[in-house]
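Memo to structure team: turn this sequence into structure tokens by end of day. - J.P.
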Amino acid sequence: MYKCIKLKDSCYHNQSMETQSQKFLQKIIRWIKRRLQWLAPGMGIKRWLVVILTGTTLIGLGFAVVILDFYRTVESSLLVSVLSWLSLRFLSRPIRAIIFGGSGMALIIWGIWGLNHSLLSPFVKPGKPLLETVSAYRRRDRGPNIVVIGGGTGLASLLRGLKEHTHNLTAIVTVADDGGSSGELRREMGVLPPGDIRNCLAAMSNDEALLTQVFQYRFPSGPGLEGHSLGNLLITALAEITGSFEEGVAESGRVLAVQGRVLPATLRDVRLVAEVTMPEDKRDVVVHGESKIPEARGKVNRIWLEPGNPPAFPPAIQALLSADLILIGPGSLYTSILPNLLVPHLTQAMKASRGLKFFICNVATQIGETEGYHCGDHLRTIEKHLGGGMFDLVICNNHFEPDLPEGPEWVIPEEDFAEQYNAYQADLVDKNNPWRHDSVRLAQAIMDLYYDRTGPLIIREDI
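Reply from structure team:
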């Protein structure tokens, strides 16, 4: 009985030792795999490793020439013996090559890793691995060239999600805003309205913590400051200092470490005008000013810009022509999206672009603009102003829970919507703010649809 127990204990002990050995071996394999990930395609490491190895080899050859010459001319037998021992002459040449080459390679990789860790650690968020940070940055740096047209909180939400997938982002926003802080600065300072541009810069910032919150801060009171946003004042000040509005926007982007660009649709001082049918007496009235259109609370028939046919901002045209993907919306249909598309050269550039064109339909209606609208109504409104056949795909929400607060209603696809348009429907609702898109879900859906049509992302690295 004692022997049986002893044998069982010995068996358990052996199994425990084998399990520990396997776990130890698995840890070593995982450690090696993590280190080898630095050599994965797209990391930008291999090419520099080859350069370092080449330089190190040349230095080693130089030292070898000096040592060999010294070895052949020295007369001291003791020194010759020491050099022979240090050069491992008692081993065969292949073994010596493996030992010295492997040791040198290990030291070089260790040195590069330590140097990179020391240089990059101040820029890595606490608790996030350095390798993951570098890999994500390189992936986004090679992301598709995306141009987004819109305005308001919808555009800012979309940009906040897309910046996690690509650094090659360009937002084109309207300059027809004439309400609030933007409108006041426009009237008093003669600058283009910076409100939508400020929101986009904040959404595209790498660090949406304290600095971005300060940029978005709105003064609640104070002579001359009440209602103004600090970001609006900063953009205005930089426009005055640099001598141009576009340079002021670019400098604001550098302050916020923005990866991407925010461009005005035009540099012309334009005003948005709408023909609205009033609900009381069914008469048509003309409403001047972007901020006045929702206040009219009537049915918008058509809108236009005054003065008409404003010239487009040339970098915005270039961005559209070189885009891989053009996104229209989300945002206020009449006061954010259409004002951009009413700049003739922008629309022409978008139609001429070879990039895919997606229209993103709003989740909910907007009081004073799109009350009672379905998905098809948004598309027909754009087609009425600009013509049809503009979009390769329409993205719309099909999840209508929870209940919306009083006022806005769900934008629901019609029964025959999929027959009229090439549509993609998914749950895109932000659970905390159900009248808006979830930025992460929407961005992921867009990227999946884009790669589904263009093929998987292939990252190449020439070494």
